[in-house]
Design brief:
By secondary structure, this protein is mostly helical. The protein contains 13 helices and no strands. It has a domain of 167 residues: MetI-like fold, CATH 1.10.3720. Pfam families: BPD_transp_1 (PF00528).
Length: 279
């Protein structure tokens, strides 16, 4: 099958492309400015007019970061935490979404609404009871304590439930049951391959959410050896003097893994959005 020819610009589509281009540049500018500041001395942060061209101190600023905090240890802790939470959320959410979408059981609708209602509760309200529970379990200063509260993700359950209900035909499940498949075998062999795009979308959302989480990690993690990137970078913010070049250099290198993750899974992410829009 021949590839479709690219659409030509017309008077009607040209303004749309112009607006999209401007919006893209505005969205990318904070990342570019962060990179520029990471290559400049701290004084350039408050310079007038603002500095918009990269400097030559990227390596020097990053060396200051390495001399101040255990950056690579914190990055490794963050990667382990985000990966474990993402895998856990994907499994739990897909299983729960599959159950809510394809099975009938008492209190199904009430339980689903109750899960959705937890999305409107500010996470700060649960900070004290969650901290008390984690401390009683002896999980303070551990990655387990920093990540366990994120394993139950109401948004993930909702997304998986909607995707499974639309993408997995009931007839396919009935045929699998006639062949002797158990419910878990149906989930593992039929449902999971179908919902890969939703997996990629939810995985990117969860990984990014946990990577950027600060309040809970700052509350639970007090030992520098267990610091995640967000907590370690916060320690660069001195109360009397802030080296913005060093701080933004650390933030810049902490953002690179997120960009790599998105580039690895962007095709599945885009296909999920496209498929949903077509449906």
């Amino acid at each position: 099958m021949a590839n479709p020819k690219p659409k030509k610009l017309t008077k009607g589509t040209l303004p749309i492309y112009v607006v999209l281009t401007i919006a893209s540049l505005l969205s990318l500018f904070p990342f570019y400015w962060m990179f520029v500041m990471a290559t400049r001395p701290s004084a350039a942060y408050n310079s007038i007019p603002p500095t918009l061209l990269p400097g030559t101190q990227l390596v020097e600023n990053f060396q200051k970061v390495l001399d101040t905090i255990p950056f690579f240890q914190a990055m490794w802790n963050t990667i382990i935490l985000c990966s474990a939470v993402t895998i856990g959320v994907l499994l739990i959410s897909s299983l729960a979404g599959f159950a809510f979408a394809k099975f009938q059981f008492p209190g199904k609708n009430f339980l689903f609404i109750l899960i959705l209602l937890t999305m409107v509760i500010p996470p700060q309200l649960g900070l004290i009871p969650q901290f008390y529970l984690i401390s009683q379990l002896g999980w303070l200063d551990t990655l387990l304590g920093a990540g366990v509260i994120f394993l139950l993700n109401p948004l993930g359950i909702f997304l998986m439930r909607q995707y499974v209900s639309q993408s997995v035909p009931d007839e396919l499940m009935e045929a699998a049951k006639l062949d002797g498949c158990s419910n878990f075998r149906i989930y593992w062999s039929i449902v999971l391959p179908i919902i890969k795009p939703a997996f990629a979308t939810l995985g990117i959302i969860v990984f990014t959410l946990v990577w950027g989480e600060f309040l809970w990690q700052f509350t639970v993690l007090r030992d520098p050896s267990s610091y995640t990137l967000q907590v370690a970078l916060a320690s660069l913010n001195n109360a009397f003097r802030v080296d913005f070049g060093m701080l933004l250099s650390g933030v810049f290198w902490a953002t690179v893994p997120l960009i790599i993750i998105f580039l690895m899974f962007n095709k599945l992410f885009i296909s999920s959005i496209t498929e949903g829009s077509i449906k």
